[in-house]
Amino acid sequence: MLISETGPSLDVISVLYTIEGLLQAVIVVIIMPWLDTNMFWKFFLSTWIILMGPPLAICALGKIHWVFYLVTLLLVDVAMTVATGLLSVLLLRSIAWEHISTFHKQVSTLAGFTIGASYVQMPLKSGVGSWEAASLIGHGAIALLLLLVYATHRNAMRKFWDDLAEPIQRGENGDMEEEDLSELEEIDEEELGEDPPSLVRMTEHERKTADANLPGLLE
């Protein structure tokens, strides 16, 4: 809407959006290999780019030229891809496995409220009279909420920093260490036997015996 008010027609804007999407895909492919280090800073920097980019463009850059709206959109889209890509790594390296599901549900609920609140931008603009004020109010409220979370969870933020300080190490076996790989390759020959029976040739008795021994093998 802002571009169409000060720039080209909707047909041209749709073409520009297509080009922006292609540039986003290329940029993401280029920067992904550099996300293995300093993940804490890169994740939170990307989230703040998403938060502060639109107000900056609406209140300042867009007034210089409408092309800055597209530039900001490209920057925000790339930052969103980076944040989404790093989120799973952050969770797996910072939170105990049994807590990931609960944490993800809590964050998804908060994200749902935030997304739902974003749909009041149009009536908010009508109420305050300008897109600038609506953008500052909408994004400013989320910024204050994030600052409150950071201030009340300083120990957790420090723990994230410590846990994510080490880069991801990848060798010939991927992310696995040699010791972990050797443990997976070990086979208990006493339980499995030198020549385990084929599933095709197993009798009903052998199949029941194998099923009974399966929990012990998994442990």
Write a brief structural summary.
The chain crosses the membrane at residues 12-34, 40-61, 68-92, 133-151. The protein has 219 residues and is mainly alpha-helical.
How would you explain this protein's 3D organization?
With 219 residues, the protein is an all-alpha fold. It folds into 2 domains: 2-163, no CATH class; 187-218, no CATH class. Helices cover 78% and strands 0% of the residues. The chain has helices spanning 2-6, 10-31, 39-64, 67-94, 97-118, 121-128, 131-152, 154-163, 178-185, 189-192, 204-218. Helix 2 runs parallel beside helix 4 (67-94), helix 3 packs antiparallel against helix 7 (131-152) and helix 6 (121-128) packs across helix 7. Residues 171-219 are annotated as: Disordered. Residues 174-194 have a biased composition (Acidic residues). The chain crosses the membrane at residues 12-34, 40-61, 68-92, 133-151.
